[in-house]
Amino acid sequence: MTLLGIDLGTTSVKAAVLAADGTRVAAATRRHRTHRPAPGHAEQDPADWWSGLCDALAELGPALSGVHAVGLCAQVNTHLFTDGDGTPVYPAITWQDGRCAAVAASLTDRLSPADRARVRGGLGTVDASHPAARAAWLAAHRPAAWARATRLLAPKDWLLARLTGTAIADPLSSIGLVGPDGTPAGWLDLLVPGLRAMVPPLADPATVAGETTGAGGLPAGLPVAVGTMDAWAALLGGGIAAPGDAVDVAGTSEVLAVAAEPGGGAPGVVSFPPWRGLHVHAGPTQAGGDALVWAAAALGTDVAGLLGAAGAARPDRALFLPQLAGERAPLWDPSLRGHWLGLGPDTGTAELGRAVLEGVAHAARHVLEPLEAAARLRAGSLAVCGGGASSDLWCQVKADVLDRPLRRTAETDAGVLGAAVLAALAVGDAAGVGELVAAMVRVDREFVPDPRERARLDDAHGRYRAAQAALAPLFR
């Protein structure tokens, strides 16, 4: 028997059939577009998600015959408003969208200090990606669409409804909507009247939501787990199972997370409600692989070409700040912008590319510091997974900048593996998370920090932080 993991990410939908030991039997990927109809806007068409999934499942073909359970995960801080039949009333507003910054600031002012402390895992503000900000914007600027809206769905919730006929959310991916008790927060209606009632019923991510109906080309009658956000699934797929475990999910953005004992927390990072004995603090940046894709296009090459050039770069003091569209953790500042700095007459494409790799790693280091403070421990090493982990060079750069060994997982598509873990838990294939992670997550290679790089990169990180602080006011 096998498991099917589905990961609806920012740039593509991935589906993989996995054996009980986590090895890949078959996999397929279909890309989808992000539309940017106005400055600061970033939207996706759910029809593209569905057609991509159907095509991916069709490619898997006979490999689906042995599947006995399905797990889902998807991008979060992307919001979809639908009518009662599940039909979208407006395109999905993605996590990269910054149009709601102004309305978000006004909503924060409506909350009491006590309620602010509960917003988004303790961050204390309503930001541009908060669901209430998206709802308020839609009500003000697209009133006809808002009048039809009855449901607020994460992409995973919408996909689950298409596959099973039932819309169910989970507390982990209902960011900004769920209070510490795991139910929709009472203060939501203070921000946008009626918003609390738009949240779907909530259930544990590793419980069965329903069975497939035959939609999408899947066999009917397969149990489907409720699922959760792509980052949380990737944490499972990266091996988080006990306090002290840490993961860097190197995707479109970087997501770092550390598991800890109960309690803790720190400004700028998200502290998730406990789930099955796991207490996780996490910090998502705004740009990771996205910054490399942008830089390659700007320099007239492709990602493979820029990585090849960066591997041969000469020593250079060039810095790159990857905040091309603002920053999330730990700064939560949508006005920040990206920069190349410290260029000299010997700086060429190779050095610019190397600066991008190091700049993304510096952003990850900036997140790791408050994460370790929140967890009240020092991560001895990090698992690394995601598309960015496929580059040996970038893994080594991150190990050097973070000054931590990185253990790359054999299955770099950790989201689909984590989704499969949730499916296995939901149908009782194992007693707990630890047992499944031990059985399904394997290490491909370890990258050890190079001590010869320590002084240079510590100095570079100090300059990176100073430059970020000095340049930020210019773009506010």
From TrEMBL:
Domain Carbohydrate kinase FGGY C-terminal: 301-426
Classification via Pfam families: FGGY_C (PF02782), FGGY_N (PF00370)
Key word Protein transport present: no
PROSITE patterns referenced in this protein's UniProt entry, alphabetically: FGGY_KINASES_2
An MF annotation (GO) of this entry: kinase activity
Superkingdom of the organism of origin: Bacteria
InterPro entries: ATPase_NBD, Carb_kinase_FGGY, Carb_kinase_FGGY_CS, FGGY_C, FGGY_Carb_Kinase, FGGY_N
Keyword Transferase set for record: yes
UniProt keywords, alphabetically: Carbohydrate metabolism, Kinase, Transferase, Xylose metabolism
SUPFAM superfamilies recorded: Actin-like ATPase domain (SSF53067)
Positions of the Carbohydrate kinase FGGY N-terminal domain: 3-170
Family per similarity comment: Belongs to the FGGY kinase family.
Protein name: FGGY family carbohydrate kinase
Organism: Pseudonocardia spirodelae
